[in-house]
Specification:
Strand order of the largest sheet: 8-7-6-5-4-3-2-1-9
Distance between the termini: 17 Å
Radius of gyration: 16 Å
Order of helices and strands: EHEHEHEHEHEHEHEEH
Shape: globular
Number of helices: 8
Oligomer: single chain
Largest sheet: 9 strands, parallel
Structural class: alpha/beta
Length: 227
């Protein structure tokens, strides 16, 4: 449920990585902002068009820019995208009333939301951007999950090292909140989560590798953990 494409990928790269066994389909997440050399919406749309039987697409949006977010949702849903990718560490709380209209549209279209959780990497573009890990606290998803019940929310990296207890609790009490196993934080928390593992609703744990299957050490780490 959680992979990214790198900019400049060509068909042969993707075909090579998609030959790895074990995964029939994968969600391809477009970056909400220009960072980490990750593919943006248009680049992901091209991959979806070339591999419709392999990829499902999530639109990258930045909710504080309300009108642009709504435009992207309309544009890329017409291209077959089925969900939304959020990066709140770039300086906003998901449940801020200022962009409620964006989540009303997401819910009306019954889209899925995957939110980055945990550490705010220094790889994000724009040093003047007000960035912080605290913006990705899972409890900021809870008000949205309660109100927008036609939307499923995925907390990436199992909520992150910092917030795994919150994410674990939310999966237990909200059927529309999930976590994924993306490495770096996701597999660590599922190995070392202590008593919080007893609170986890394992039906709401989803498999993700962060990178395309087989193409990166993170993907291989997640594969090893799954086995």
């Amino acid at each position: 449920v959680h992979t990214h494409a790198q900019r400049g990928w060509v068909r042969t790269n993707v075909e090579r990585d998609l030959t790895q066994p074990g995964v029939d389909r994968t969600i391809l997440l477009a970056m909400p902002l220009d960072h980490w050399s990750g593919a943006l919406n248009d680049e992901c749309a091209k991959l979806l068009a070339e591999f419709p039987d392999k990829f499902c697409g999530f639109i990258g949006i930045h909710p504080p820019d309300v009108e642009e977010s709504l435009r992207r949702i309309d544009t890329y849903c017409k291209k077959g995208f089925i969900g939304i990718k959020l990066m709140p560490t770039s300086g906003y709380y998901p449940d801020d009333e200022k962009h409620r209209k964006v989540f009303e549209e997401i819910n009306a279209r019954k889209l899925i939301v995957l939110q980055h959780c945990g550490w705010c990497s220094q790889g994000i573009k724009g040093k003047d951007m007000f960035q912080s890990t605290r913006f990705s606290e899972p409890y900021h998803v809870e008000p949205l999950a309660r109100v927008f019940t036609d939307t499923d929310f995925i907390l990436a990296h199992a909520g992150g090292l910092t917030y795994f207890p919150q994410a674990s609790e939310l999966t237990r009490y909200h059927s529309n909140i999930y976590i994924d196993t993306c490495p770096g934080q996701g597999t660590w928390t599922l190995r070392h989560g202590g008593h919080w593992l007893n609170h986890l609703n394992w039906k709401n744990v989803l498999f993700g590798t962060d990178m395309i299957w087989g193409s990166d050490s993170q993907a291989r780490s997640a594969k090893s953990y799954a086995e």
